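Bumping my old thread because nobody answered last time. Still need a sequence for this structure:
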């Protein structure tokens, strides 16, 4: 696998993961009440705890995308 191929692969992976992060954020924003109702019944968790868990999930996912996708992609782009 060449550096150009790896760069292209990481670019697409980054785009897909950022798209997934945006979709998840938009869906949680628009359908928060429905998601809280479903998840609180499924897992027997308080609504306030679920809101914190959603925020924690989105933050961790964003950090993982930056560290494992965007960072290496930018590094490879700078190398070529």
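Sorry it took so long. Here it is:
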């Amino acid at each position: 696998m060449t550096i150009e191929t790896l760069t292209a692969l990481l670019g697409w992976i980054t785009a897909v993961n950022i798209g997934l992060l945006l979709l998840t954020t938009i869906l949680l924003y628009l359908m928060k009440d429905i998601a809280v109702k479903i998840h609180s019944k499924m897992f027997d968790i308080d609504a306030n705890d679920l809101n914190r868990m959603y925020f924690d999930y989105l933050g961790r996912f964003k950090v993982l995308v930056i560290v494992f996708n965007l960072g290496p992609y930018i590094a490879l782009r700078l190398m070529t």
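The helical segments are 3-30, 32-43, 47-79. Let me know if any region looks off to you.
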